[in-house]
Amino acid sequence: MGFKLVPVVVGQDLDDEEITSCVVEPAARVHKEQPLPAQAADALKALCDLSPNNAPVAEQDWQAAFERRAWPVDPPESKSRRVAFRRAVKVLGERVTSPESGQWQRALTGGEG
After folding, report:
1. Distance between CA atoms of 63 and 58, rounded to whole angstroms?
2. In this predicted model, what pLDDT tens digit does every residue of 77-88 receive, in sequence order?
3. Nearest-CA neighbor of 75 among 45, 103, 42?
């Protein structure tokens, strides 16, 4: 359930100006972001590990780090790994950006968690 703050007048000051406060009221349900699927989370963690300062990372380096994280033992064939990486990048959507061809970094949104 969501909530919102609604301003209310609670009195007047010595200059006859309104004194206001807020009350909490039910509101429309707040959209809660769904957790990332495992491989997308692995891809994002790999990118963060490669570049803690968020400098651009070469795509091949990011993919290799993703593969090591996603399949520490017994990785699938090369084509399946590439497809999984592409899917993970697509799921990440606006969380990552490509400032130059072949380079990736986390998008700076101000509320990154």
Report:
1. 9
2. 999 999 999 999
3. 42
